[in-house]
Amino acid sequence: MPGVQPRKPWGLRWRSSVWYVTAIVGLGVMTDLLVYTIVIPVLPFQLERLGYSNVSGLVGWLLFAYSAGLVLSTPPIAMFSERYNTRTWPLVMGQVILIGSQIMLMLAPTYWLMVIARIIQGISSSIIWVVGLALLCDTASESIVGRQLGIAMTGLSLGMLVGPLAGGLLYHRFGFHGPGILAIIATAADLVGRLLIIERKDAIAHGVDPAADPRADEEATVQEGPASDNDNKEEKPPAAEGTLAGLAPLPPPQTQQEQHAPAAPATPRLSLLGVVRKLATSKRALTVMLGSTIYGMSYASQEPALPLHLQAVWAFDSSKVGLIYLAGVLPTLVSSPLAGWLADTRGAEWTLSAALLLALPWFGLLSVDGPLAFFIAMFCLENFFLAATVPPLTSELAAVARQHDGIGYAHVYGAFNLSFGVGSALGPVIGGQMYDHIRRGWAAICYFSIGALFVTAVLTACFLGDRPVLARLRTLRTRRQAGVS
Question: What ranges does the record list as Low complexity composition bias (predicted)?
Fold first, then answer.
């Protein structure tokens, strides 16, 4: 019937809320890292069981296949999500694809099927990183987006924490099916959570805006106070100039929710080439993309060398290496949400510059041959500050999307995913070659990361933010000189 409002979905407020979306995006990130890492410690043993030799090289290509699927699928996924202004269904399809790829990997009798399964897993990973982060930015208001991204990024640490340990234990007890079944169960749970999401544009159609700032409503209520009947009789608003009695009244003023809620993003009409051109001409966007590449490269360059270094210096076996990884992941559970909060309150440019510079000493000290306790402490501090770079990077990309007409959140997070994928693909190759062909290979990897992170810190100070750090420092210096003179 005309004029009848559509029935509101059950649980509308909590299913569309910022915190529920943050939790589901964080769960998706955790599931992605769980699926990625749970098979890393067991792939060599599975390949040997299948009769293959030279398994270290074969494992390297399996890791590369995952990154290749992620990189190649990112542009079409980002363009599709923005063109059709949809987030939930791509996320749901991504989980269905991920479950299928895990079944393929778990049952694969040959190496080439395992490669295909890893490529498909990379495609699914691209969906959660591109569409999931875009969904979170759609839902959260600008004032808290950095904090929410930081909280969601703890899923990265949790996935890295659970994956390798669970994979090793389950493989020892149940064989290659053990890790695969756990990964499928985690993916299925994530799928249920995604099916319950109500996007902001759909919630607004039912009169609920999850991005509205509730503090504004509270402040307005306190300032206005309840109006009494006498107040209504004694004080009447004057008629607007030019209006006549008997004519239709003017439309009511906007509510607080309408005044403070950001407008829903319009569907971009730019082509892929147009998006690339706009991002390529933005120093701010290029700096974030470089930072994402360096982060992935610095993180991944240690992966092939760390077990060998621990084995050579302290005669560690695979179980003890897993404990070192565990020690390195725990500090990131604190640094990621802390960095997101700082990005909101102090600015992404300050937070990222500080995190990059504070990470440098620990990479250097990690190259020093000393006691095991010293190495573990330096490894923890290195990971603490390196993980703190991700929330300000992703928060700054949201600002880039708001700054450029026609650029959507899926576009910029597609660029982030592409940059990180390139870095995480090149990192193991660079680290492995350095460790194999340089006399002090582990130290060379650490020094390489120091140089790359320092260059990124300088570029961040020059170009990141509405007012970059270097520009602010110059202004402050000029003011001081003027005051002295």
Answer: 239-248
- Looking at the fold, whether 202 and 298 belong to one and the same domain comes out as no
CA-wise closest residue to 396 among 320, 303, 286, 472: 286
Closest-CA residue to 278 (of 163, 382, 414, 383): 414
pLDDT for position 300: 82
**Chosen domain end from 177, 208, 239:** 208
Instruction: State the total domains in the chain.
Output: 2
Closest Cα partner for 396 from 349, 456, 354, 359?
349
- 212 DSSP assignment: S
Q: Which helix (H) or strand (E) holds 346?
A: none
The domain that holds 432 is classified in CATH as 1.20.1250.20
Rounded Cα–Cα distance for residues 335 and 328 (Å):
12
Report which DSSP code applies to 85. Answer: T
Q: How many CB atoms lie within 10 A of CB 88?
A: 17
Residue with tokens 């890295």: 160
Amino acid at 293: T
Per-residue confidence (pLDDT) for residue 422, from 0 to 100: 86
Residue written as token pair 């599975």: 46
3-state secondary structure 141-184: CCCCHHHHHHHHCHHHHHHHHHHHHHHHHHHHHHCCHHHHHHHH
Are residues 204 and 275 both part of a single domain? no
Which residue in this structure is represented by tokens 């098979």?
A: 39
403/468 Cα distance (integer angstroms): 15
Count Cα neighbours of 70 within 13 Å in the Cβ-side half-sphere. Answer: 28
With CA atoms as reference, report the closest residue to 176 among 101, 108, 117.
108
**Look-up: residue for tokens 């009695």?**
245
Helix or strand run (H / E) with residue 391: helix 390-403
Neighbours of 12 (CB within 10 A): 16
235: in domain: no
Contact 139, 21 (CB under 8 A): yes
Positions of the chain with pLDDT under 50:
1, 214-268, 485
In a shared domain, residues 322 and 204: no
pLDDT of 62: 84
Residues found in the chain: 485
Residue 261 in domain = no
Joined together, the tokens standing for residue 305 give 């060398």
Q: How far apart are CA 168 and CA 39, in angstroms?
A: 8
**Parent domain of 476:** 270-485
